[in-house]
Amino acid sequence: MKIFLDTANTQELKKAAETGILDGCTTNPTLIMKEGRDYVQTLKEITKIVNGPISAETVSLEAEGMVKEGKKFAKIHKNIVIKVPMTPEGMKACRIMTKIGIRINTTLCFSANQALLAAKAGTYIISPFVGRLDDIGESGMHLIEEIRKIYDNYGFKSKILVASIRSPTHVRDAALLGADIASMPFKVYEQLFKHKLTDKGIKQFLDDWDKLQKGLKKK
């Protein structure tokens, strides 16, 4: 499973990229607004950090506007993937841009039927929002399971990107269900490395090493 960061913070992206584990990035106008940065300039900076797919979201509600914005963003870098919403207009835009070689990330997916339609429209990535479904008492991971089954049934090549991730548990469950990508906040990414027994073991090794060095000095 590929690991993406869901952020527009270039410092977070640099830290994650240094590990060699980061595979891509998802952004949206809200994330870039939080950084107080220019949208296009931020995307350009991200392309210099992330060596993988970078999702840039359109804001138009009509297909014509989405295509216009998508073409503009796609010119920034070959790794740019265009985000469109799961709407009839979004699917029109998906078909148009896919035909001219622009990869699409269909966002705001909340049902298996929506994921089916997006795959038929040729989307490169489908982004089901698991955390938001959990928030209203539905099972986000059950949706991932349904989409994986449908895509496998019919040989759809669209990638399943698990979005709205809230915890390391979401990442683990997504991997167990066969999701292709998990896109997460930097905080969750950092938590993936953590376990209390790892910390305990490191402390014990260092304490034993210190005792050994002290013992050698007495000889």
Describe what you observe in this structure.
The chain has one domain: Aldolase class I (TIM Barrel, Alpha-Beta Barrel). 53% of the residues lie in helices and 16% in strands. The longest helix is centred in the C-terminal third of the chain and has 23 residues. The radius of gyration is 20 Å and the shape is globular.
Spell out the blueprint of helices and strands.
Blueprint: E1 2-6, H1 10-18, E2 24-26, H2 29-35, H3 39-47, E3 54-57, H4 63-74, E4 80-85, H5 88-99, E5 104-109, H6 112-120, E6 125-128, H7 130-135, H8 140-154, E7 159-162, H9 168-176, E8 181-184, H10 186-191, H11 196-218
Parallel strand pairs: 1-2, 1-8, 2-3, 3-4, 4-5, 5-6, 6-7, 7-8
Helix pairs in contact: 4-5, 6-8
Structural class: alpha/beta
| Large-scale geometry | globular
Broad CATH class:
Alpha Beta
CATH architecture: Alpha-Beta Barrel
Largest sheet: 8 strands, parallel, barrel
CATH fold call: TIM Barrel
* N- to C-terminal distance: 52 Å
Radius of gyration: 20 Å
**Number of helical stretches of at least 4 residues:** 11
| Strand order in space, largest sheet | 1-2-3-4-5-6-7-8
Average of the residue pLDDT scores: 95
**What is the fourth-level CATH superfamily?**
Aldolase class I
Q: Which blocks of ≥5 consecutive residues have pLDDT under 50?
A: none
* DSSP, total strands: 8
SSE series: EHEHHEHEHEHEHHEHEHH
Strand content: 15-25%
